[in-house]
Amino acid sequence: MTEPARILYGVASPNVVKVAIMLEELGLDYALRYVAVFQGEQFSPEFQAMNPLGKVPVLVDPALPAPIFESGAILIWLAEQHRRFLPEHGPARIEVLQWLMVQMAAIGPMLGQYTHFRLLPESGETYARGRYGAIAEGLYRAIDRRLEAREWLAGEDCSIADIATLPWAEYIDRHEFDRAQFPHMERWRTAMNARPAVARAKARVFGEFASPSQSSIAAATPDDLDRFFSRTEKVPEQDYSGVKRMR
Ligand SMILES: N[C@@H](CCC(=O)N[C@@H](CS)C(=O)NCC(=O)O)C(=O)O
User: Fold this and answer.
1) Which ligand 1 atom sits closest to the C-alpha of 14?
2) Would you call 218 exposed, middle or buried from its count of C-beta atoms within 10 A (0-12, 13-18, 19+)?
3) Which end of the chain has fewer CB atoms surrounding its CB within 10 Å, N or C?
4) What are the φ/ψ torsions at residue 58 (nearest 5 degrees)?
């Protein structure tokens, strides 16, 4: 059996799932490679040669001279190459890119911070928890309002803006917001999750990465965790069970 030439490096995380959804939507062949982030594999010279920022996802695509990183850039590349999920020009294209930027610049980073601070005991860091909780709620609210009178985040069809945003919108449960308060986002999430490509991507990423991910976190030393979370001072005991609860 020959191995697919396209390789998606990652972990079980939303930024990786969004690329897998796009690959599945396009019907492309790809292999998954787990990166042991808790052991610092992302800082190895081999990985840094692919992405100097030391982050996943990275896509190795034989049609490109070098590996490509930043999930938004990967989605744009795949969309342009296959002429799907992104209008080719004009206002419709900008609308999709605008909502992709909202995901990349705000939804991902802010929800990521809220997820991080929620690992601390509730009494441990009330300022950061409160701040990122309020920002997260505002972003869920913005997605919900945007979807009130439209089927997709941008344009007339499902686009890379929807593909990029879905895996982050799934954090609504983990962040313990009441889904009923976001009915339009809920309807859109149901529609997205009904797409066979979304189901396939989630099954592959969570299926193939669940076990190495559990081993990687179980083997992580306190120093590994300090490095992974960029911690500069000791923090109260953290609850990592949520790390495995991303769906
Ligand atoms: N803006 C980047 C964010 C990538 C990112 O934060 N990746 C995380 C996993 S979702 C990661 O690689 N973390 C390991 C680390 O920061 O050391 C993208 O969308 O690709």
Assistant:
1) 10
2) exposed
3) N
4) -130, 135
**114, 168, 173: which is closest to 142 by C-alpha?**
168
Q: 209-221: per-residue pLDDT in tens?
A: 999 988 998 999 9
pLDDT tens for each residue of 32-50: 999 999 999 999 999 999 9
Q: Relative to the CA of 227, which ligand 1 atom is closest?
A: 17
Q: What is the CATH number of the domain that holds 160?
A: 1.20.1050.10
Residue 40, ligand 1, Cβ within 6 A: no
Phi, psi angles (nearest 5°) of residue 69: -125, 175
* Domain membership of residue 60 as a residue range: 7-84+197-232
pLDDT digits (tens, 9 = 90+) for 60-71: 999 999 999 999
Q: Which pTM value belongs to this model?
A: 0.93
Extract the runs of DSSP E, i.e. beta strands, from the chain.
7-10, 31-34, 58-60, 68-69
Would you say the CB of residue 18 lies under 6 angstroms from ligand 1? no
**Burial state string for 96-119 with b = 16 or more CB within 10 A and e = fewer than 16:** bbebbebbbeebbebbbbbbbbbb
Q: Is 56 in the pocket of ligand 1 (CB under 6 A)?
A: yes
Judgement on whether residues 127 and 171 belong to the same structural domain of the protein? yes
Tell me if 115 CB under 6 Å of ligand 1: no
Q: What is the domain count for the chain?
A: 2
Is the CB–ligand 1 distance for residue 42 below 6 Å?
yes
Nearest CA to ligand 1 atom 11: 55
